[in-house]
Amino acid sequence: MSDILIVERAKHFLSALRHCQVLGLRVMQADAQGLSLCLPYSEKIVGNPETGVIHGGAITTLMDTTCGISTVCFLPEMEICPTLDLRIDYMHPADPHKDVYSFAECYRVTPTVIFTRGYAYQDDPQQPIAHAVGTFMRLGKDAHVKAGTLRNKA
Q: Where is the Thioesterase domain (predicted)?
C-alpha cells in the first residue's frame, strides 16, 4: 500500500473521532513503519493553571489514538480495532506552551489482536514524555459502527 493511501486512511480515521477534533490532533506522518501525531498546546488541555503543564489525560488520549490509528498503517484493509489494554509510563511532565508529538507502530499482528508501542515527546524523541504499549482487538473488515453500537455485517 502506498504511503499516500496510508496517510489518507490515518487522516480519515482521526477525523471520525470527535474528541480528537476538539483536541486539534493532526497527522504528521504515516507509513508502513508507523504513525506520528501532533497535539497542539492550548489552554484547554492545561492540567495545572499555575504552571501551564498539560493534563495527563490529554497525553493519554494522544497515546491511545496514536497506537490505535497505527493499526491502519499496517493492516491491508481498514478495520475497527478498539483498545483492549493500554499502559502508559510517564517519564516527566510536558513543558508548558509546547506542542506534544507522538509516534506508534504495530509490532505484532495476530488474527484477533494487534500489539502496538509508542512514545510521546516535545523537542527530542530521545527524551520522551511517556512510553506506551497497547493491544487492540481485531473485529474484522466487515465490522461497522452504527448509531453508537458495534455490529458485524452478516
A: 52-127
Domains in the chain: boundaries: 3-152
Helices (runs of H) and strands (runs of E) counted in the chain = 3, 10
| Beta carbons within 10 angstroms of residue 90's beta carbon | 15
Domain covering 3-152 in this structure, CATH number: 3.10.129.10
Q: Are strands 46-48 and 34-39 parallel, antiparallel or unpaired?
A: unpaired
The helix/strand/coil state of 71 is helix
Helix axis angle for 3-15 and 56-74, nearest 10°, is 140
What's the whole-model pTM score? 0.87
Give the Cα separation of 19 and 144 in Å (integer).
19
14 contact partners, CB below 8 Å, separation of at least 6: 20, 25, 26, 27, 37, 65, 69
What digits encode the pLDDT tens for the residues 116-141?
A: 999 999 999 999 999 999 999 998 77
